[in-house]
Design a protein that fits this description.
Elements lengths: L13 H19 L14 E6 L10 E7 L7 H6 L3 E4 L9 E4 L8 E5 L2 E9 L7 E3 L7 E3 L4 E6 L6 E9 L6 E9 L3 E7 L4 E9 L6 H4 L3 E2 L2 E7 L2 E5 L4 E7 L7 E6 L14 E3 L6 E4 L1
Parallel strand pairs: 1-3, 6-8, 13-19
Antiparallel strand pairs: 1-5, 2-3, 2-4, 4-5, 6-10, 7-8, 7-9, 9-10, 11-12, 11-18, 12-13, 14-15, 15-16, 16-17, 17-20, 18-19
Length: about 290
């Protein structure tokens, strides 16, 4: 197609005129489409934009928990769809497993790049001599903590005891996580445990729910299938059918430093009283109530 000067005769071939009509219809259609100019920016290599709301400046490779999106679809649909940003904060218990690793220093209230999935260096607190296989976030900490869950440790610097050091991790860990623990104490419905690698304890207490039939609170004072139960302590109960009464014990018992295996993030939860316990004893040793 050639431009014409003012006053020159205008002759438009049919193919050119049809192309102009098609272009005009396309433009009109895009104007009527609310999302026509919304082109989502992909999170290349697992990198996203975050806003630091932790309350203080954070160094590169610090770990912050995902709180919410900075702009919701209700506030601005196009902004949400094209340039979404995540608000990140100091980890708390409710942020379990939802974290990013900063890829650059980010001032408090400022914005920067962070990795949400992939392989990255990270600040890790722990003792390299323990040979921890995993790490995760803990309330109040902006580094990963050894022997927690959420990331797989691929390599870490040597340390002299517990110290902050650099490590290379992969996260998130796919699927349910199974961890070996040592029992430290027994409560009515859960165990207090520490991660155990066969040689060292993590030093961090973790609540692990008992299997349903070993939880005391559900059965204490209740009658189930004609049998009434009264609990004397965490490992002892009386069962009666109105005629015969017997004392029952958990067998084998949950003794100090007993090794158990627990799974995390079971769909539907594991707790009866809403206290937010996330681990469940898999009961690989087949513990059950038995007559004394």
């Amino acid at each position: 197609m050639k431009k014409v000067a003012s006053g020159q005769p205008l002759r438009i071939p049919a193919s050119t005129f049809n192309s102009m009509i098609d272009a005009a219809n396309d433009y009109k259609s895009r104007l009527l489409n609310r999302q026509s100019e919304v082109i989502a920016q992909p999170a290349k290599n697992g990198i996203v934009t975050v806003r630091n709301l932790s309350g203080f400046d954070c160094d590169r490779f610090s770990v912050l928990a995902i709180d919410t999106v900075s702009i919701t679809p209700t506030e601005n649909l196009q902004e949400f769809a094209s340039r979404f940003t995540l608000d990140v904060v100091t980890p708390e218990s409710q942020n379990e497993g939802r974290f990013v690793v900063l890829q650059e220093p980010v001032l408090d209230g400022g914005m920067g790049k962070a990795m949400i999935a992939g392989v990255t260096p990270v600040l890790l607190f722990g003792d390299s001599a323990l040979g921890a296989k995993s790490a995760g976030i803990e309330p109040g900490q902006i580094t990963l903590i050894s022997n927690s869950s959420g990331a797989q440790i691929l390599w870490e610097e040597d340390t002299a005891g517990e110290a902050l050091h650099l490590a290379l991790v992969r996260f998130p860990v796919a699927g349910n996580i199974i961890q070996q623990f040592a029992v430290r104490s027994v409560q009515d419905d859960y165990l207090i445990c520490q991660a155990w690698d066969g040689g060292f304890l993590s030093g961090i207490d973790v609540q692990v729910a008992k299997p349903f039939l070993l939880k005391n609170s559900f059965f204490d004072g209740q009658t189930v299938d004609g049998v009434s139960y009264t609990y004397l302590d965490v490992n002892t109960r009386e069962a009666t059918d109105g005629t015969t009464t017997e004392t029952q014990l958990v067998t084998p018992s949950y003794f100090l430093d007993a090794t158990i295996y627990a799974v995390k993030d079971v769909i539907g939860g594991v707790d009866l009283n809403g206290s937010g316990i996330e681990w469940l004893d898999l009961n690989v040793d087949g513990r059950a109530w038995a007559k004394q």
